[in-house]
Amino acid sequence: MSSISRRDFNKLLLAGSAGVAFGVFGSGSQGFAAQKRVVVIGGGFGGAATAKYLKKLDPSITVTLVEPKAAYATCPFSNWVLADLRTMPQITQTYSALAHRHGIKVIGDTATAIDPVKGTVTLKGGRTLGYDRLVVSPGIDFKWSAIEGYSQALAESKMPHAYQAGVQTQLLHKQLHAMKDGGTVLICPPANPFRCPPGPYERASLVAHYLKKKKPNSKVIILDPKEKFSKQGLFTKGWQRLYPGMIEWRGATTGGKILSVDGAAMTVKTDLGEVKGDVINIIPPQKAGQIAFTAGLTDESGWCPVNPMSFESTIHKNIHVIGDACKAGAMPKSGFAASSQGKVAAAAIVMLLRGQEPAPPSLVNTCYSLVGTDYGISVAGVYQFTANGIVEIPGSGGLTPIDASDDQLAQEAMFAEGWYTNIVRDIWG
Amino acid sequence: MPSYLQASLVAGMVAAASVTCSSQGYGASTAAGVNPRGQVLSLSCAGCHGTDGKSASIIPSIYGKSAEYIESALKDFKSGARVSTVMARHAKGYSDEEIHLIAEYFGSVGKKTGKTGGRK
After folding, report:
1. How many angstroms away from the CA of B40 is the closest CA of chain A?
2. CB atoms A397 and B8 under 8 Å
3. How far apart are CA A183 and CA A153, in angstroms?
4. Given this structure, which CATH class describes domain A366-418?
5. Per-domain boundaries in chain A
6. Is the pLDDT reported for residue A14 higher than 90?
7. What is the DSSP letter of A179?
8. Among A332, A402, A420, A416, which residue's Cα sits nearest to residue A370?
9. Cis geometry, peptide bond prior to residue A193 (ω within 30 degrees of 0)
10. CA–CA separation, B3 and A225 (whole Å)
């Protein structure tokens, strides 16, 4: 299995960014001149999938994966951890299979600069890596200053975002478990676009699941700057059925828009007044990960424009940007979408390195959300590349039916677990 | 019996059958003669069904099934003749020609690794 023991997990967390390296890198120069080199920055759903599928599709390519974390806690299923339905080790992936089974050079370091003309990546530790093609999959970064009073320091102490899984998930988990019965949990999602559109609402569901069992007089309030949200009808129906009266959603016109936060008072100021929380989860507005900005791969939106045929940057040649950091039209920013894009990029890179044209891309997404145990819902999408960019294929995809039977909802909950087992093995196994 | 239990029984049988052919390496997918379009279409399926369609969970394996079986299953999901939770929503995103390419790809993956080709 891809999950690891608690002891190993703690060890890996401590290892952090200490420059741990796996695999066989350092085996001399760049090898034969004809050997093609692809460097992948970022070991999440997008980057790790690209690295693995590059090797799968063409084992002759030298693939190097640069990722500072020795262990990667997935955002998918981190909400399950909050409700004690999973443990942190169970959602933590490592790079040992990629290094030892698949022959990928895994370097535990951070990319600090890219030279698109010379074709090199500079690492924090001082090394420079040359590439024929580069894949940038840095995920998201937060706009800390977008909410007055909020900061990285406040996120790490009193108001976690828990939107990059790991210590942030553990902090929010700890706060929920320390909260007294009758307390109020505030969940504050950002405006679109952001990572995992159904994520905050699955979080509200599973926090309510925990509270209903352990602290039944407590409440969840979602303060949302949006008019509507992902799977809204399905979530709302599920909340009414499973947690009547426990979850309150306030939207753009009903006091959901956050103006500022006060860490000392544990309050959130909205356009309709102040709201006090015992646990406050602020999910700040987002932008592409830092290296995308440093390398000049972003446009005015704060995300990276790409050619959907190959996910090659429209700004710099030979650099592909995938996952949350890229602008992928109708595709949501999800782990599944990132891995789908990673496979398309890998297949395209193999063809491009051979001097051939990539096949037209095929892109897919499925996002499961758990509303309660035995109560799963999903949204699916199949996408094609048209003159208007990446669009959903008419008549395909969509949501779990609003009138789905209890059997269907239970089945979707089981498939959600099955999906997680398979996708993490597909990427890190 | 609830439909999801039936589905899980079938899935369990498929998963048990596919255990014997795990850790096979990737030989098939890099072999010559793979249609690149069929391959790109099929790589998406692994996100739920596992690498090369080898599922380690309740989700049914595709690996080892014949091209004919996969093609008819996908067409039945698409038409609604076969009841599903999410597969109809996916299958409706593919033309019959694309379904044929996907079926051909998975049919060949199972065969070329020489373990369980053609099982229906």
Report:
1. 6
2. no
3. 24
4. alpha beta
5. 6-141+287-359, 148-284, 366-418
6. no
7. S
8. A416
9. yes
10. 40
Please tell me the CATH superfamily of domain A148-284, with its number.
FAD/NAD(P)-binding domain (3.50.50.60)
A396 and B92 in contact by Cβ < 8 A? yes
Nearest to B90 by CA among B52, B54, B59: B59
pLDDT tens profile A117-144: 999 999 999 999 999 999 999 999 999 9
Residues of A in contact with B102 (CB under 8 A): none
Rounded to the nearest 10 degrees, what angle do helices B96-112 and B36-43 cross at?
A: 90
Q: Which residue of B has its CA nearest to A58?
A: B30
Q: Which of A361, A380, A414 sits opposite B89 (nearest CB)?
A: A380
Please state which CATH number belongs to domain A6-141+287-359: 3.50.50.60
Q: Given this chain, do its domains A6-141+287-359 and A366-418 carry the same CATH topology? A: no
DSSP at A392 = E
Mean pLDDT of B38-59: 96
**Closest alpha carbon within chain B to A361:** B40
pLDDT in tens, A249-272: 999 999 999 999 999 999 999 999
Q: Give every CB contact of residue A51 below 8 A, 6+ residues apart in sequence.
A: A40, A43, A63, A65, A98, A102, A104, A135
**Best of B22, B43, B74, B96 to disrupt the A interface by mutation (most A CBs within 10 Å)?**
B43
Rama region for A404: left / alpha / beta (φ>0; ψ in -120 to 50; rest): beta
The stretches of A42-151 forming alpha helices (DSSP H) are 45-57, 78-82, 96-100
CB-CB under 8 Å, B55 with A422: yes
Chain A residues within 8 A of B8 when measuring between CB atoms? 414
Specify the CATH number of the domain B3-18+34-112: 1.10.760.10
All structural domains of chain B with their residue ranges? 3-18+34-112
Which of B29, B50, B92 faces A56 most closely, judged by CB atoms? B29
State yes or no: pLDDT of A20 exceeds 90.
Answer: no
A391-413: pLDDT as tens digits: 999 999 999 999 999 999 999 99
**Mind listing the pLDDT tens digit for each residue in A321-377?**
999 999 999 999 999 999 999 999 999 999 999 999 998 899 999 999 999 999 999
